[in-house]
Design goal:
By secondary structure, the protein is an alpha+beta fold. The protein folds into three domains: about 20-215, 2-Layer Sandwich (Heat Shock Protein 90); about 220-310, no CATH class; about 320-500, no CATH class. The protein is about 35% helix and about 20% strand. It is built from 14 helices and 18 strands. The strands form four sheets. An eight-stranded mixed β-sheet has the order 5-4-3-6-2-1-7-8. A five-stranded mixed β-sheet has the order 9-10-15-11-12. Strands 16-18-17 form a three-stranded mixed β-sheet, with helices on one face. The termini are far apart.
Length: about 500
């Protein structure tokens, strides 16, 4: 006797509609910005909207997203969790079919969709998430009617999609200026491609913000282009030194398709200088490596960043070296100013009430090659210059006085000299060494005091002193002052680097 075939056993794992409440309260990184990005991505994606213009309209009750793209033929994809027309596209960033649904739930309780496809067919559908939750049903009423485009709302009659989010959640708010700046950075690849994105605020105030006006562009010096790959996934890099510290966004920006998906201020174990900029564009092969929230790379991220570092390290090192030189120049200028003040105050005290010490132009510069110097400027320069040089023997310093300029050379072969020079925020060592070198030179050569720009009376007075007394006078004046030197800010360094470039 044949045994009966048992019925197939299974569990119906369809989620309860109360799940919608959880989705409404789901955490979105960057909140409203992320929710709006889901709709912009659908509008711009080549496999979905492929629009050239996207408009976001906000009023006290509703939020509308309008594009002039190719429209839709299957509205179920827009309303069904896990369904997406972007999944099969190799260039669209969408993959999992829930971004726009989560975005809609995050912003409001109901949504209406109006769309005209490339055939001129007009369709519309709507869903009330509150009603779905209350009725315990996932079925969305839809009559499936297809009408001519002339019946569509005016903004999309020539093709496109309009989504209106109604019953907006009052706690989902944003600042218009900062939102525009953030979106402009995110969609810079699309904006650079000539696409238009605008924010329109109606109700209370009428305002239109064009994202193209919020793009912070970087002008790069010696821009270079590279290409590479990670596990068969290719990418390109454009990198260089930013010339204007007041504009643009430093760091490494990673882009996929029409948007930037991530910005980082460091590469593996390598903090980036503020003047460094790189745009990394990922090929379509990277789609499956992207995270579900579209703002991260879930696979091979560290290897990608390591490859970018390898390609651009020479640019980073060059900027860091230049930045360090500028940093030293700014600190050195403070030290020189402190020395000048010490000599001025000493002159007033030691040379008498009627004598004064004329302010001096001081400078302390990092070592540069002689061939890089402008010889005419070198002859015209005045004041004090402190340099690291290779000195013979075990000499600690040497000094040269020409015209109105004194150059103090410190022996860079001595490790403590180099350490003191490159760590000027600890001024005790460098201050004493430079003071001693200046005093020694003044003791040996009375004419060396010319660089101090004394008045004629003071010049005669100090030059007529015995050598040892001249030395003690100079040394006392410098060492009697306690220097106050501050670390330059990153902004000061960047502005100074820009000034050096323009100069």
């Amino acid at each position: 006797m044949t045994k009966p075939i048992p019925k197939k056993q299974f569990i119906d794992a369809t989620p309860k509609t109360y799940f919608l409440h959880s989705l409404r309260n789901a955490h979105l990184p960057q909140g409203v910005r992320t929710a709006l990005c889901e709709f912009i991505d659908n509008s711009l994606g080549e496999g979905s909207g492929n629009a050239r213009k996207v408009t976001l309209v906000y009023d006290s009750d509703n939020i509308a997203i309008i594009d002039n793209g190719c429209g839709m033929s299957d509205l179920a994809q827009m309303l069904t969790l896990g369904d997406s027309q972007n999944r099969l596209s190799s260039t669209d960033i969408g993959n999992f079919g829930y971004g726009s649904k989560i975005g809609a739930l995050y912003l409001g309780w109901s949504v209406e969709i109006f769309t005209v496809n490339e055939k001129g067919e007009y369709r519309r559908a709507s869903v009330d998430w509150k009603a779905q939750e209350r009725n315990g049903s996932w079925q969305v009423p839809y009559d499936g009617k297809v009408l001519a485009s002339r019946f569509a709302p005016a903004p999309i009659r020539k093709g496109g999609t309009m989504i209106i989010i109604r019953d907006r959640h009052d706690d989902r708010t944003w600042q218009w200026g900062s939102l525009a700046a953030d979106l402009a950075h995110t969609y810079r690849p699309a904006l650079d491609d000539g696409r238009e994105i605008e924010l329109v605020h109606r109700g209370g105030r009428n305002q239109t913000l064009l994202l193209s006006e919020y793009v912070e562009r970087d002008v790069l010096k010696s821009q270079q282009e590279f290409s590479g790959s990670v596990n068969g996934k290719s990418f390109t890099v454009v990198a260089g030194e930013r010339l204007d510290g007041s504009a643009g966004k430093p760091g490494v920006h990673i882009a996929y398709g029409h948007r930037v998906i991530e910005t980082t201020k460091s590469l593996p174990e390598t903090p980036l200088p503020a003047a460094f900029y790189a745009m990394v564009k990922l090929s379509p092969e990277w789609k499956k490596a992207l995270g579900s929230n579209k703002t991260t790379i879930a696979q091979d991220r560290e290897r990608l960043l390591a490859e970018v570092l390898e390609l651009t390290k020479h640019i980073i090192d060059e900027i860091k070296e230049k930045s360090q030189e500028v940093r030293l120049d700014l600190i050195n200028a403070q030290i020189a100013e402190e020395m000048s003040a010490a000599l001025n105050e000493g002159g007033k005290r030691d040379l008498g009430a009627l004598r004064y010490w004329e302010p001096t132009s001081w400078s302390r510069t990092a070592v540069v090659n002689d061939e890089d110097k402008d010889q005419d400027d070198k002859k015209k320069s005045s004041g004090l210059e402190i340099r690291l040089e290779d000195l013979d023997g075990h000499a600690v310093w040497d000094g040269i006085a020409t015209g109105s300029k004194m150059t103090i050379q410190l022996n860079k072969q001595l490790k403590y000299i180099e350490q003191a020079y490159n760590n000027p925020l600890d001024p005790a060592a460098i201050w004493a060494m430079v003071a001693s070198a200046i005093a020694d030179l003044a003791e040996e050569d009375p004419a060396a005091t010319r660089f101090l720009k004394l008045s004629e009376d003071d010049m005669d007075f100090i030059q007529n002193q015995p050598g040892q007394e001249r030395r003690q006078m100079i040394l006392h004046r410098i060492l009697s002052k306690v220097p106050t030197v501050k670390e330059p800010t990153a902004k000061q360094i960047e502005v100074s680097m820009k000034g050096n470039t323009n100069g």
